[in-house]
């Protein structure tokens, strides 16, 4: 990235041919029609949000819409546990009750749960309508809002029901992070750290140098971190939209992390917290396989600690608890467990030949808390 760190909004594109779309990143974008209006299809707009975000930002988003729009809203309960088909049905109910047609646009205003559900509702409603991502958490800004993965959880596995459906635009207003609880900011930083670990050792070093400023909500530093994260994800998505190959690398730590989330009950651990612990587990396993040295694992542990993330697994999870959920992972092929591991910091790989003894040893000995 050659641009200087400044206060100006930044824009990058996800290059997917006819379905390419921009990601706009900056402060104060909500409420400004220049950023939302160009991407709306038709007059009908359904804003999908939750009862935590709505009181803060719903009216501001409406201010960014011209007066001739027919604007409705669906306000869902907050929380990962609400990411179900029942919640998506509430969105469809609202669209049908309002008589919305194929030329409507859904606006997903909230974190990753809202973005995933609104996107899935858009993918299915009348076989596909437009939607725009307006993510309000760091985790959703750098990860779930970009790339078109939509869906809901199933009691036996996270994100098991869904569709690939790209947004028409992603609008990231960094001011929304000022109301974000510290724990959720840390959870978002897990996904930022992930990009450095899998693809960009220079970015990882930059994060190590600026973690204190990021946690202090330094606007310019946050914009830079979000921009670099989105650029890395956009490049991967452009190369492999439906996760047939390289896009799987974006799941570093997620196989372990999803097992934690499913076992503990969705929402007990935030997604980023579980991924943070999962990335350290992946680093430890990479060390056991001879790819990372001791200092590499120490660096991974240290940056997770600096970000305020857990470095232990839940105290009540056994090896068998992990394996039961991990066997259902979407990356698995022909019953072979496929893990994202690190050949080096900044160089991830898909590995489907982990010796059972090494995986068992990791799951038996990894610290619990």
SSE map:
Layout (H helix, E strand, L loop, with lengths): L9 E5 L6 E6 L6 H4 L7 E7 L3 H10 L6 E7 L8 H13 L6 E7 L1 H13 L5 E6 L2 H7 L4 E6 L2 E8 L5 E4 L8 H18 L1 H15 L3 H21 L14 H11 L6 H18 L5 H13 L12 H8 L12 E6 L2 E5 L4 H10 L4
Parallel strand pairs: 2-9, 3-4, 3-5, 5-6
Antiparallel strand pairs: 1-2, 7-8, 10-11
Structure description:
By secondary structure, the chain is of the alpha/beta class. 44% of the residues lie in helices and 18% in strands. The protein contains 13 helices and eleven strands. The strands form four sheets. Strands 4-3-5-6 form a four-stranded parallel β-sheet, sandwiched between helices. Strands 1-2-9 form a three-stranded mixed β-sheet, with helices on one face. Helix 3 packs across helix 4. The longest helix is centred in the middle third of the chain and has 21 residues. The protein is globular and about 65 Å long. It starts with 9 loop residues before the first strand and ends with a helix.
Average predicted local confidence, pLDDT = 95
Which residue ranges are poorly predicted, with pLDDT under 50 across at least 5 consecutive positions?
A: none
Strand percentage lies at 15-25%
Structural class: alpha/beta
Write the H/E string, N to C.
Answer: EEHEHEHEHEHEEEHHHHHHHEEH
Principal-axis shape: globular
The number of distinct helices, counting runs of at least 4 residues, comes to 13
Helix content: 40-55%
